[in-house]
Amino acid sequence: MPPTPSSSKAKRPLPSPTSNGHRRQHMEVRKKLPVYQFRKEICELVYQNEVVLVVAETGSGKSTQIPQFIYENGKLKNFHKNISSANRKLRLAHTICVTQPRRVAAITVAKRVAEEMGCETGTLVGHRVRFDDSTDIQGRNTSRIIYATDGMLLREATADPLLTRYQCIVLDESHERSLQTDILFGVVKRAMKARTRSKYIDEKNSCSVSEEFEKDKLIQMRMRKKAKELELVPLHVIVMSATLEVETFQSYFPQSKYIKIPGRQFPVQTLFTPDYQEDYIDSALSTALQIHKYEEEGDILIFLPGSEEIENLAGLLRKYLSEESELGRSISSDEKSGEHEIKKRDMVQSIKGMGTDLHSGHGSIVNGVLVCVLYAALPPEQQIFAFQSKPQGCSRKIILSTNIAETSVTLDGIRFVIDSGKCKERDYNSATGMESLTVADVSKAQARQRSGRAGRVSAGMTFRLYPEIAFDTLDETTAPEISRVNLAQVVLQLKGMGIHDPRSFDFLTTPSQQAMLKAFKQLYALEALDDTMELTTYGKEMAKLPLDPTFAHLLLQSPKYECTAEMLTAISMLSAENIFYRPGGSGDSEDSSGLSAKAAAAHKRFTSYEGDIPTMLTVYNCWRKEAIYISSAKGGKKERKRRRMQMEEASRKNSKSSKILHGDWCTRNFISGRALARAHDVRQQLSEICSRETSRNGLGFDVNVSCGDDIVKLLKGASAGLFLQAASRVSNSVEINKSIRKDMQKGITNTGRGRYKTKIGGAEVNLHPTCSLFGRNPPPKCVVYTELLVTKRTYIRGATQIKEEWLAEVAPKFFR
DNA sequence: TAGGGTTTT
Questions:
Q1: In angstroms, rounded to a whole number, what is the distance separating the alpha carbons of residues A97 and A128?
Q2: Which of A110, A377, A423, A756 could form a disulfide with A147 if both were Cys (CB 3.0 to 4.6 A apart)?
Q3: pLDDT tens per residue, range A605-658
Q4: What residues contact A735, with CB distance under 8 A and at least 6 apart?
């Protein structure tokens, strides 16, 4: 059996659950996993210690097996002998919660474990992710092993900081150091300290003396008292990590014990280039062609930083593969016949039944090689080529991917990895408050992770497009996300949990004080915090919303401007991934350039003169009017089947009307169906929270208040919500006139310029080309925006036109 | 005028 990382467990064909025979079969498979031999040792460690660190490489089976060992061993349950029968009835602290950084992993691993245990998902084993909670279907509290996203457990901790339901928390994939996992570390430690029966050694006690810190100590004492009253059993924590970063975790949990479990990987030979490469695209191209020429079989995975590089290289590969083969053929025939003519023939064949009319370029075979691209912004229909097995007549697959293939998805059959050594990295400058996304060197850990992708099916090879001395200079690990983002939402979240001073929160890696301060300032400006940095009533409302503070404020301002229904839609759409699908590509194939024109034309009908907020409304409203969609957000298999039938029925009924199915509507309009569906789900969740009574932890306002066609109300609402992010056009007349004259000479009539200066901060920014205002002539004098990001230039996105004088009206404290 | 890695509530 090849080693398989956790997230793909459920993809393997499995016998159907429930029968004893099948359970036995599963048992055989389980016994072969490296982790199985350690089951007794693991259980003993967990039983005797409150924190256990498990270091296990890919393919050990840790994610699926360890929670089952703990459950089956049952020793932890013995703690319950000591608790009162009343609490036993409450079923407190019976459950094991395993957190995952990604939704898909939580769902698929839960499914796999349920199959191994011979039950349906949602019974003994369940998953809990946003919009999809299988543990909620058959009455609460049935699941004893819950796989949840770490964000979901974090939300739960807001209402229940003691994590009363759980006896054991397993923090999986800790080495990834995602924002949510990192916060969860502190939250779990807090609950553990309150529930422990032994004295907790607190290494942080001596270093902080702030008043808030004293308040936090008081709260900790109260939590301890409550835990005692509830007779809560001690909380056991298992930290699972794939790489050896034990020291970091051990100094964080000084009382922890640690166990190392071998993984199951085939050996991967690593090759470096002798010198630094000037152009990694060119270098990747020749490496891939050489592998293809000299190596018998095995698929190739190439890691590149972004979609642009990927589409470029894909175009080059297709071109060279067809030409080289032709060239090779003509040279060999040349030797015999002396002919020099290189025949040009169309070598590109479409795979029947796989491609859509739209994007056949992505799934095409060139001389027996399937070149496919993979990045998150690519619609799922386009991504499938990378996952499907090779079609007939195809001997090799070359996949070009971003770091999505590092952790988020698994690809089968990879024997060769080509690593550019580059990735796009998000960073945050707390001095300017600007986020950036730029090409950076990968870390050693990342490079190893990439190499590992070649050793899943058999021994593999990895080709690093940089010299070994360059590898030695790389950072050991990537900086944790918490040190690279705007912390406003983190601070709001911690405040919402009743942590008075987030600066003294027990972080695994404490973010910079400057970044913290910046977040405080932003929240203060939004009036979420008062002069004493205490959460205001308004701040408490903001914390109830699963949104960035900017969007939370935008939504909470909407009732005042009578545009709640509209803002709900706009925020849901803007906080989703890219709604508009723009077929990428180098433009070297006619196919792709024609497609981007088609997409642009399709998008044009949604474009509003006033900018992105009204544009998003138009897309959503058109979709509601023209497409048939039934949400599949909640419910199990049966429920989904029922909904699908409902949708087909609706489609039949609507056959006479102009309504079409969701998928067709999205394809026709070059809209990402997944993003739109998600936006719809987000909208439903937000409006549920908004309309729920305040006594039930809601916000208690009418979500149906609409401004109708009164766009001024909407734009004023946008001004009030986004006043911190306003910018006015740079009107350097000399400069503008010069460029207009130049354009006129070139015959360009569209002389609109989208250059702005932010009202607060005074940064020079540009309208991002994906803004609906991009290209408007003349561009608006003043805009508000939802995002500011530095890539090749400093861009604002989500821009909407406002009137400058409104700012004084909506935020008099800031503008006069 | 010219373009965004990945994730989550």
A1: 10
A2: A110
A3: 999 999 999 999 999 999 999 998 877 655 555 666 676 677 777 766 666 667
A4: none
Instruction: Please tell me whether any atom of strand B lies within 7 Å of the Cβ of A672.
Output: no
Residues 214-273 of A with CB under 7 A from strand B: none
Q: How far is Cα A696 from Cα A687, in angstroms, rounded to an integer?
A: 14
- Treating both helix axes as pointing N-terminal to C-terminal, what angle do A564-575 and A711-721 enclose, rounded to 10 degrees? 60
Give the residue among A814, A784, A816, A785 at the shortest CA–CA distance from A802.
A784
Q: How many of the other CB atoms lie within 10 Å of CB of A757?
A: 14
Is the distance between the Cβ of A425 and the closest atom of strand B smaller than 7 Å? yes
Triad A180, A183, A184: Cα angle to 5°: 80
Q: Which residue has the least CA–C1' distance to nucleotide B9?
A: A546
* Rg (alpha carbons) of chain A, rounded to whole number: 28
Q: Report residue A175 as tokens.
A: 């080495």
Closest CA to A402 of A419, A385, A427: A419
Nearest nucleotide from residue A376 CA, by C1' atom: B6
**Domains within chain A, CATH numbers bracketed:** 33-200+232-261 (3.40.50.300), 268-482 (3.40.50.300), 722-810 (no CATH)
Separation CA A216–CA A501 (nearest Å): 7
Q: How far is the CA of A479 from the C1' of B7 (A)?
A: 15
> DSSP strand E in A41-144: where?
51-56, 95-100, 125-129, 132-133
**Does A543 contact strand B, using a CB cutoff of 7 Å?**
no
On chain B, which bases lie within 7 A of the protein's CB atoms? 1-9
Exposure class string for A128-162: b at 16+ Cβ within 10 A, else e: bbbebbbbebeeeebbbbbbbbbbbbbbbbbeebb
* Residue whose CA lies closest to nucleotide B8 C1': A151
Does A440 contact strand B, using a CB cutoff of 7 Å?
no
Angle at A715 between CA A713 and CA A718, to 5 degrees: 110
Cβ of A155 less than 7 A from strand B: yes
The answer for residues whose C-beta is within 8 angstroms of residue A733's C-beta and 6 or more apart is none
Q: By percentage, how much of chain A surpasses pLDDT 70?
A: 81
Instruction: List pLDDT tens digits, range A287-316.
Output: 999 999 888 889 999 999 999 999 999 999
- Contact yes or no for A789/A781 (Cβ under 8 A): no
Reported as a pLDDT band with limits 50, 70 and 90, residue A688 is: very high
Look at A191-200, A295-304, A654-663, A769-778 and tell me which has the smallest mean pLDDT: A654-663
Which nucleotide shows the minimum CA-to-C1' distance to residue A768?
Answer: B3
Element counts in chain A: helices (H) and strands (E) = 28, 27
| Integer Cα distance of A804 and A715 in angstroms | 11
Type of residue numbered A134: S
Is there contact between A424 and strand B, defined as CB under 7 Å from any strand atom? yes
| Angle at alpha carbon of residue A21, lines to A20 and A23, rounded to 5° | 60
Closest alpha carbon to C1' of B5, residue? A424
Strand order in the sheet with A726-729: A422-429, A434-441, A787-790, A794-797, A764-767, A755-758, A726-729, A782-784, A800-801
Residue A755 CB in 7 A reach of strand B: no
Partners of residue A238 on adjacent β-strands? A52, A170
- Residue A59's Cβ-count burial label (10 Å; 0-12, 13-18, 19+) is buried
Separation between the CA of A748 and the C1’ of B9 (whole angstroms):
46
- H or E stretch covering A570: helix A564-575
Distance (Å, whole) CA A764 – CA A245:
41
Q: Which two tokens stand for residue A593?
A: 């350039």
DSSP letter (8 states) at residue A483? G
Residue A396's Cβ-side half-sphere holds a number of Cα atoms within 13 Å equal to 22
Compute CA A776 distance to the chain's CA centroid, rounded to the nearest angstrom: 32
